[in-house]
Amino acid sequence: MHSSRNQRGFRSGPLAWLALVLSVSLFTGACSGEKKPPPPPPVPVLVATVTEKTVPVELKVIGNVEPYSTVSIKSRLSGQLVQVNFKEGQDVKQGELLFVIDPRPHEAALRQVEANLARDKALATKAQADAGRYAELIRKQFVSQQDYDQAKATAESLGATVNADQVAVQNAKLNLSYCYIKAPISGRTGSLIAHQGNMIKDNADTAMVVINQIQPIYVSFALPEQNLAAVRQYMATAKVPVSAVIAGQENNPEMGVLSFIDNTVDRTTGTILCKATFTNESKRLWPGLFVNVVVQLSTQPNAILVSSQAVQTSQEGQIVFVVKPDLTVEIRPVEVGRPIDGEVIITKGLKPGERVVTDGQLRLVPGAKVEIKTGL
Question: What would the pLDDT profile of 253-291 be if each residue is shown by its tens digit?
Fold first, then answer.
């Protein structure tokens, strides 16, 4: 006896077919019992809403505060400094007495020329009287023409001497006034160089003190030459507002107006110098201080704004993840304009009211489900 086998070595009897059917049934049952994998959990994200509003058209640069005017105080005559009427760093007003140079030598010189004037006036008066008498005598031919001419010349000469004496008196009074040095402008004094008791030279190389006028005050800055035409256009029709932002005081800027545009563009830097004038009532702007300058030219209505954190850069360009009503996301290409205080203007790609992802983009793919959180 022998068992029959097929060509591949399997038994061909009923038991073999039963075993094959059972195996197929078990395999089919196992496959039909498998479950689909659960969907991935929603991705937690932060979102922001696209807004539409009117925004300013402005230029932002770095500026430097400059005094409105600066005066270096120097003496016009030599002498000893006998009085200092202020403390360094003090605010002074125009016309306020600052220094006194020893006036005694100049007072003596004034008295001398005044005495000369009085003497020469008396002589001139006598000479005028003599000339009058000689004029009467020559008509009666009691004196010669030569005597009359001499009397007349003496009177005229003494009259000229009186005029010269008057000029000398005025000059002496002027020199005496130079002993009392007053503030030519209102402002703040700097470091005091000349102290009481020092000998002062006239028109010395070093100033006795420097006064800076800080009310009003300038802020100078340079604008790119491509903005010159627009700035001049707006300046010709209205006052151009300028704000100066001090570091650490961003919420309290100083406000001024554009007051000066230089007449030449700097060929080295391609910029043009401008100045804005500030009243500086609070004296927060200080000469030499660097500030952030914002020049507001006009406004742009109906601008589409979105948080700058929402804009991502891909190989195809700039994109945002837009959250649809069913809380899934789609990738939207956008065209981005200029930035404004943490936001950017979107010129194409978004509409007001749409929601975009501002944080959590790295875990997103098109169609992914999201969960909006208030913080991550």
Answer: 999 999 999 999 999 999 999 999 999 999 999 999 999
What is the b/e burial string over 335-357, where b = at least 16 CB atoms within 10 angstroms of the residue's CB?
A: ebbeebeebbbbeebbeeebbbb
Looking at the fold, whether 287 and 253 belong to one and the same domain comes out as: yes
* 88 and 117 in a common domain: no
Which residue segment(s) compose the domain that 123 sits in?
Answer: 103-178
Between strands 312-314 and 290-307, the pairing is unpaired
Q: Pairing relation of β-strands 209-224 and 355-359?
A: unpaired
Q: Using one digit for the tens of pLDDT, what is the confidence trace for 159-208?
A: 899 999 999 999 999 999 999 999 999 999 999 999 999 999 999 999 99
Cβ–Cβ under 8 Å, residues 357 and 321: yes
79: left (phi over 0), alpha (psi -120 to 50) or beta: left
151 and 166 co-located in one domain = yes
Q: Do residue 306 and residue 327 come from a single domain? A: yes
Where residue 133 falls among pLDDT bands split at 50, 70, 90? confident
